[in-house]
Design brief:
The protein is mainly alpha-helical and 488 residues long. It has 14 helices and 5 strands.
């Protein structure tokens, strides 16, 4: 086994934008095959660890983290693996090919005909339709009024189901259109020529072509979003259809028992939409508490409220598990059982997050091709920022919902605040040589490492927004004025 030793300012981490060679300003000792026992001296304790009792585990972890932090200035030794790995989301030089071997990712606008065909259509069919509630007339009995309300809800659900059916038809046509490519390949390489090992057979004529290149079909962002949203809606359609068939006009009351778990997105009533926003804010509150608890020993003096950069990365999977809970990819913010968190993350959650970040990466590509975030509607910007885990949006949501009790804040003003921030995040995402970076590792460009994001545009913007959108008083952490020790 050989090791790569990094020293200098970047000794604590490997930047995601690192190329095939070390970044400037980093003193590298290259790749050596001598003295592999160096890693043992730097990364393990100087004493032999004996069996640890459960009640002593917390104290042992605190001592271990403190001991590592005292050696924070030592060079960090990273085991070198010639086979690229995606664990940890760190892009190392071994993730790049020695020469350009892959297709580039083009961010140019779509051709005019393709843009007119699919780029200007909205995603309204994937969202809930408007709910027209009847007003109580003079002299109308309560029974007839409640029956009218039930019919309004029934009409609302029927409209949502019709939209799901229409989306399913478009989804089927889209799958046939992009064959033999996957949806993520079509999003990344739209309009380019894909080289195959054998000549292509024309399915219409049955004749073999002279070229072994097949064009990658164009898709729009609407096609990409409709593809994934329709899959999610179809999985919930069977249980929701049974509830609607049995309960009829009383479906809104029955849905209260199940929540949003079985309700497709086009069939969610306004109360459920507000409930989803409350859930996002609650997850943000839990994420802040758990992240502060996780890094309080390693970051005793943070630079700002979202500074979780640590000299040494302890329990890196816990950070990703908390971020998965923040963006709704995991129901658990922490392990339910001891010693089960690492198993759950590496067996179940890691692959789910990889696909999730790849989806964010491809969605950002399509947004750039269609004019950037300024060309999106306010609801599109809100949905992207929420899926991206934008702290700037979550700071605004926490203030609007928990302080002002306002759920109608998705407007042009919100778009004007978020669009420049997301554009800068996208600029950093695409600063790479994709002709050399392996395609199955593209998701790393959208990966948000909470241990390295202290100076990223979204985090810095969220810190600035705290002045205009302060959180509720009960959510502030740290010692209060009356709890601080008095000076003698």
């Amino acid at each position: 086994m050989s090791f790569a030793v990094l020293t200098g300012p970047s000794a604590r981490f490997v930047r995601t934008a690192i190329g095939p060679v070390c970044a400037s300003g980093v003193n590298g000792i290259g790749i050596t095959r001598q003295q592999p026992q160096l890693a043992i001296r730097h990364l393990t304790s100087s004493r032999v660890l004996r069996a640890i009792k459960p009640e002593d585990h917390a104290k042992w972890r605190r001592d271990s983290v403190a001991r590592l932090n005292r050696r924070a200035q030592d060079p960090l030794v990273i085991p070198y693996n010639p086979k690229p790995t995606s664990r940890g989301g760190l892009i190392t030089p071994q993730c790049y090919a020695p020469r350009p071997e892959y297709l580039p990712i083009l961010l140019d606008p779509l051709p005019e005909g393709v843009e007119d065909d699919g780029g200007n259509r909205s995603l309204d069919s994937t969202r809930p339709p408007p709910l027209d509630m009847p007003t109580k007339q003079a002299g109308q009995s309560k029974l007839s009024y409640y029956v009218a309300i039930g019919r309004a809800y029934l009409s609302f659900y029927k409209t949502g189901l019709r939209n799901i059916r229409s989306n399913w038809r478009e989804y089927s046509e889209l799958r046939a259109w992009i064959q033999p490519f996957t949806i993520v390949a079509a999003a990344r390489y739209s309009g380019q020529q894909w080289a195959t090992k054998k000549p292509i057979t024309d399915p219409a004529t049955g004749q073999m072509s002279a070229s072994n290149h097949i064009p990658v079909p164009h898709i729009s962002r609407r096609d990409f979003q409709l593809y994934y949203r329709t899959i999610s809606d179809l999985l919930k359609l069977i249980p929701f259809g049974l509830v609607l068939l049995v309960c009829g006009e009383f479906t809104p009351l029955a849905v209260l028992l199940f929540g949003n778990a079985i309700v497709p997105l086009p069939c969610r009533i306004p109360a459920q939409q507000r409930q989803a926003m409350d859930t996002s804010v609650q997850r943000f509150r839990q994420w802040k508490q758990h992240m502060h608890k996780l890094t309080s020993l390693s970051v005793p003096h943070p630079q700002h409220a979202f500074d979780f950069n640590t000299p040494r990365l302890e329990h890196a999977w816990r950070r990703d598990m908390l971020f998965a809970h923040l963006v709704g990819q995991s129901r658990f913010a922490r392990p339910l059982l001891p010693l089960m968190g690492s198993l759950y993350f590496h067996v179940v959650l890691h692959q789910r997050l990889t696909r999730y970040w790849e989806r964010i990466f491809c969605d950002t590509i399509l947004i750039r091709r269609e004019g950037g975030f300024a060309a999106l509607s306010p609801i599109d910007v809100f949905e992207y920022a929420l899926n991206y885990g934008s702290l700037a949006l979550l700071v605004i949501m926490e203030h609007e919902i928990r302080v002002k009790k306002n759920y109608d804040f998705v407007n042009e003003a919100l778009k004007e605040k978020l669009a420049p921030i997301l554009e800068r995040e996208a600029d950093a995402m695409f600063q790479d040589d994709f002709t050399r970076l392996m395609p199955h590792l593209h998701w790393m460009r959208a990966y948000r490492n909470t241990a390295l994001w202290r100076d990223t545009p979204d985090v810095l913007a969220a810190v600035d927004l705290l002045n205009d959108y302060p959180p509720p008083v009960e959510l502030s952490w740290g010692p209060q004025k009356e709890d601080r020790p008095k000076e003698k």
